Amino acid sequence: MSNYLKLIFKQISKDPLDFFESDFNNIRIPQNKIKNFQKLFSLNKQQELPISYAFIAAFPYLIKVFADKRFALTPVGLIHLSSEFIEYQQLDYAAPFDIKILIKQNSSDDRGKLINIETNIYQNGTLSVSNNNTMLKRLKQKFGKRSSQSKRVNSFTGELLGVITRGEILRYSKVSADFNPIHVSSLMAKLLGFPKAIAHGMYLLNLAITKSGIQPNYLLVEFKKPCFINTTTEINRENDKIIIFSDEDKLHLDIAFREL
Length: 260
Known about the structure:
alpha+beta; Thiol Ester Dehydrase, Chain A; ten-stranded antiparallel sheet; 7 helices; 10 strands; 35% strand
């Protein structure tokens, strides 16, 4: 978390670019990091890593991009809205690869600033996986409380996925190197506008994929309502769609997948 907190005080350009890109070459993933991911999600050594692992592989370099003075905002409190994955060829994480990250920033909507992050992973000079993310930086840190008198809008049904515990979130933070304080500290989450710490959307995505046993080469996930620590979650899969929800009406993830 200390790296995130340092980013609060980084120098930011007064006239930020609309877009910029950064390249990182000859990257190798430590095998113990992959083993820890496999252990967390109950995968054996023979199982292929999910397509969403590409986000974890690139995350340490995304942090470096966030620290770049060309990045217009502090990443602390960034909210993940969506993530799209396209696999062009299978990526061998035991071999070196290159990453190109393109940042498009300064777009606005009524919630705050929108940031598009396009991450392309190359191996042996060939594009292997593309991951496009949209994130939001809220200008006003407020989290609306739901009225106890409000009616249910949805009525989802499914099977138990599990209780999202703080221990699992801390383990995922170590596996992914994502120590965003809104995930690991209830105090920091409250300071940033949430009632308590929330689960990583990417943790829930990897959990849904591994539990469902799917291995698509295209995936689009939309992150809906935040999933707070100690929430009992459920999962429903119908054809080429998976949802994760709680309390019958709180939709957390909407996942579409297919083979290209």
